[in-house]
C-alpha cells in the first residue's frame, strides 16, 4: 500500500453507486447556507493526515454514496434537485451499424466480417484490438493501470471521443493545465511555478482559441481488482481536475453565463468480476461543488462478456461530445 493509500480512512467508504433524482423541493437558500457551515465545521475537525483525500475538505459533495460522512451529513436527494438537468446521463442511439456490432461479436473470425463505411472500419479495429487483449493468455493476470490503459481503454477512446474532429485525447500521466493555472494564480511563476495535477487521460476541445480541457479520466488498476483506498484516491483526483476545468471555464467564457456548466470525467476500475467504466459529472450549486456518479457500465474482460463492448462504446460516445457542443 502506498503512502497516499495510508491517508484514506477506508472505514468510512462504501461501494459507489448511481443515485437517481427523486421528486420534491430543492434546498432553500437558508438550507444551503447551513450545509456550507456543516462543511466548514467538519473541515476544522479533520486531522492533517486524513484531510487530503476527504472530498469535503475541498467543498466537494460526493453524491455517489461512497463517502459515508457526506451521506450522513446532507440531504443529497434534495441537493440534486437543485443541480442542472444536464447531469442526467442517457445513452445515445446507435445508427443501423448496431447490426454490424452483432456480426463482429458473434463472428468466429473477424476477417470474415466486411467493413464498408468509415464508422464500421473504426468499430472493427476497436473490437479487434480489445478482443486480442482480453483473449491473450498473458493478459489474464493482474494488469498495471498503464497497461490496462493501453490495451483496453485507448482503443475505446480512439474509436469514440478521438474521432470527433475538434477533440484531442492525451494519455499517460498528463498534467492538467486548468490546475496549473489555478495553482499559479496570484503568484509570480518566475519565483516558483507549480505544475498541475496529473491524470491518466485528458480530453481537450480545439474549437476555441484557448483549447480548454473538457474532460479527464483515471484508471484505477486492472484485475483482479484495485484496493478501495486507491479507488477513492482516483475519484478525488478526478474531482480536483473537473473542479479546476469548471473554474477556468468561468474565467475564460467572458460575457457568457457558464454557472450551470457541467463537466464530465470517468474512472476505469478493476473489480473481481471484471472492469467497469464509471461516468462522473461535476457542477456547482449552493456555493459547493457536486460530484455525481451519472452512469456505470461493465467493460469486456473475457471472451464470454464481449457483448459489453457495445455498451462501453455507447457510453463513451455520449457526454464528452455534449460538453463539446456546450463549449
List the helices and strands and how they pair.
Blueprint: H1 3-6, H2 29-45, E1 60-62, H3 68-73, H4 76-80, H5 98-106, H6 118-135, H7 145-159, E2 167-175, H8 177-184, H9 189-192, E3 198-205, E4 213-219, H10 228-252, E5 263-271, E6 274-285, E7 288-299, H11 308-326
Parallel strand pairs: 1-7, 4-5
Antiparallel strand pairs: 2-3, 3-4, 5-6, 6-7
Describe this structure in words.
It is a single chain. The protein has 327 residues and is of the alpha/beta class. The protein has 11 helices and 7 strands. A hairpin with a 7-residue loop joins strand 3 and strand 4.
Shape: globular
First-last Cα distance: 40 Å
**Strand portion, in percent?**
15-25%
Low-confidence stretches: none
Report the major sheet. 7 strands, mixed
Q: What labels would you give this structure?
A:
327 residues, alpha/beta, 7-stranded mixed sheet, 7 strands, 40% helix
The gist of it:
Helix content is 40%, strand content 18%.
